[in-house]
Design goal:
This is F-box domain-containing protein. Pfam families: F-box-like. It comes from Coprinopsis marcescibilis (Agaric fungus). InterPro entries: F-box-like_dom_sf, F-box_dom. This protein has 589 residues and is an alpha/beta fold. The protein has a domain of 116 residues. The protein is built from 21 helices and 18 strands. Strand 2, helix 7 and strand 3 form a beta-alpha-beta unit. Helix 9 runs parallel beside helix 11. The termini are far apart. The N terminus is likely disordered.
């Protein structure tokens, strides 16, 4: 009925293209819900986009219809957008051509394998991010692409895509930082960075071996098997001779990508919307307001991204309070890490976490880089440094004054702990100390390093106990060895030493403020009876310990002691311990 009434009526036809007025919206509100949804389902995507931008109510309604039509109703749930490689290939394109998604505050995207798809996915994700106003957390994962790039030789087509992808990904990160986003996580990407780095090595090789000064590396053309010509191919050949095509013009690499399957179709409605002009798609803030950045690999510090990442961190200096860095490969050289840690100035940083892989032959993040960085950031409250350390290649920065006055949590190699807890540093807010043995291949931590770190902890507590102005804060002492064998050996060394000398637990008995002892190990092993009694004998030397925490234990296995029985055995040897926690769960009994 409505279509026949508007048929031939130009004024009525024009009214369909005009924005909805308040009276029109009121008329639509008055319709029954079933009828309203039926009308929305008859509209195309462009019309649904226009209606969804008129009001918040229509945004919710049109969003539901749009996602259900494109079979993406499970992609957006509770304000979180989760797109993985199992999702539809057109998911990002559909969302880009959609509308402002209401209540979207978190995006988690796993890039689909294939370097040639990187550009398209990045541009789609960039367009989606620019259209949002309330996204506070963005997680980007390259794990699937890493699996694809393992052992893969560089190809010329991938090189073209890589050259175009790097600036596109920089734009994406820049727009994320400028759109009120608070948390950014870039996970994995080590193999992708290695794959991109192979192109640079290939160019250097060609430049060094080419007498003309270097030429671009082109793919090797291999002769394929001769195919038998069919009548169809013969007809195509005749047609090509009768109707020759126009010669193609030369295009640059950036222009040629628009004709491939990696090109992005320009959304038709973006330039036609009156309620959302073109300026609305630009970053709303030139100053990033990031509060937490996680670099889950060395990709963001690779040569192509290094200066951009450093500039992004420095631009977020006034708001950034948490920085997590994970080094899993030798993609970044030693000089790169030195430049990174010595150039950053983050005055409001309170949490720093640095992790290095145990698989590297030589640790690349040296203590002199880290300690210099720590000494220049007095705002730090949490310091976690996890990774191997070679004492023979390690030197520590020696500050002239006290550092880290706000430090509350320190987890690192015993050498780091000894450096942090020297007599010059008062550390009045210290609450937790975690000793990480960090055994690496042939580099095992000698027992005296662990004991020296404990001695520094004891001296720190002695100073605070004697000072009437600074009340002693109960400390949590954590001990983590790479293997249980080394942990047991360290336990036995203390027990044997104290039994032979009969001078008490020496440094252990000086740790009078230790209220909680946390035992951890790098590998998951079964909770065995002999290790349990060895641990209890060790804990008996702590005079005021009240809680025992066992981390990374394979609990709930057949043959293990019951939780209640385990707690009774602990209290029988250490009556002061009233709380036993295994893998975060407190035992009852």
């Amino acid at each position: 009925m409505a279509s026949s009434r508007n048929e031939g009526d130009p004024q009525g036809q024009r009214s369909l293209n005009e924005p909805l007025t308040p009276s029109t919206r009121y008329d639509l509100y008055s319709l029954p819900t079933e009828l309203l949804f039926a009308i929305l389902e008859l509209l195309d995507d462009e019309s649904i986009c226009k209606i969804g931008q008129t009001s918040q109510t229509f945004n919710h309604l049109s969003c539901s219809v749009f996602l259900f039509r494109n079979q993406m109703q499970d992609v957006l749930a509770e304000g979180r957008l989760n797109i993985q490689w199992t999702s539809s290939k057109a998911t990002l394109t559909v969302l880009r051509n959609a509308f402002f998604l209401a209540n979207l505050n978190e995006i988690h995207y796993d890039f689909v394998p294939g370097p040639q798809r990187l550009l398209r996915q990045t541009l789609d994700l960039d367009a989606l991010v620019q259209r949002q106003r309330g996204v506070h957390r963005v997680e980007i994962d390259f794990s699937d692409i890493d699996s694809f790039c393992v052992g893969r030789a560089p190809e010329y087509v991938d090189r073209q895509c890589g050259e175009a992808w790097i600036p596109a990904f920089m734009d994406l990160m820049r727009h994320i930082a400028g759109h009120e986003c608070k948390v950014v996580v870039v996970a994995n990407g080590e193999e992708l960075g290695r794959y991109l780095n192979e192109f640079a090595k290939l160019e250097e090789y060609v430049y060094d071996h080419d007498p003309q000064g270097g030429l671009e590396a082109y793919p090797i053309v291999r002769k394929g098997k001769k195919k038998k010509r069919s009548l169809r191919s013969l007809g195509s050949w005749i047609q090509a001779r009768l109707h020759p095509r126009k010669p193609r013009t030369l295009q640059s690499a950036a222009e040629s990508t628009t004709n491939t399957d990696t090109a992005i179709p320009q959304p038709r409605h973006l330039r036609d919307l009156e309620d959302q002009p073109e300026d609305d798609f630009k970053p709303r803030s030139s100053i990033p307001g990031l509060e937490s950045i996680t670099l889950g690999s060395s990709l963001m510090l690779y040569d192509g991204f290094y200066h951009f990442t450093a500039d992004l961190l420095q631009a977020s200096a006034q708001s950034l309070f948490e920085l997590n860095i994970d080094c899993q490969s030798d993609l970044v050289p030693l000089s790169g890490w030195k430049s990174f840690f010595t150039s950053l100035e983050l005055p409001r940083l309170s949490h720093i976490s640095i992790t290095s892989s145990f698989l590297l032959e030589t640790p690349l993040i040296r203590p002199e880089f880290v300690t210099y960085f720590l000494a220049r950031h007095p705002s730090l409250t949490v310091v976690r440094i996890n990774g191997p350390l070679d004492p023979r290649l390690s030197s520590f920065f020696l500050p002239k004054a006290a550092i880290l006055p706000k430090l509350a949590v320190a987890a690192a190699h015993p050498l780091y702990i000894s450096w942090l807890m020297n007599l010059r540093n008062k550390l009045p807010n210290l609450k937790e100390v975690m000793l990480l043995s960090q055994d690496h291949q042939a580099l095992s931590v000698p027992h005296h390093m662990m004991d020296d770190a404990l001695r520094c902890v004891a001296e720190h507590m002695d100073v605070h106990h004697k000072s009437p102005h600074s009340p002693a804060i109960p400390l949590t002492l954590g001990i983590r060895f790479t293997t249980y064998g080394n942990l047991d050996a360290w336990f036995r060394s203390h027990l044997l030493r104290n039994t032979q000398t009969q001078c008490g637990a020496s440094v252990l008995e000086r740790l009078v403020s230790i209220k909680t002892v946390r035992i951890s190990s790098f590998f998951l092993y079964r909770f065995e009876e002999d290790r349990f009694w060895l641990l209890l004998r060790f804990l008996s030397f702590f005079p005021q310990v009240e809680a025992l925490e066992l981390v990374d234990q394979m609990s709930h296995l057949d043959g293990e002691p019951d939780g209640g029985e385990l707690k009774k055995k602990v209290k029988a040897v250490c009556p002061g311990i009233g709380r036993v926690v295994v893998n975060g769960d407190a035992l009852r009994g």
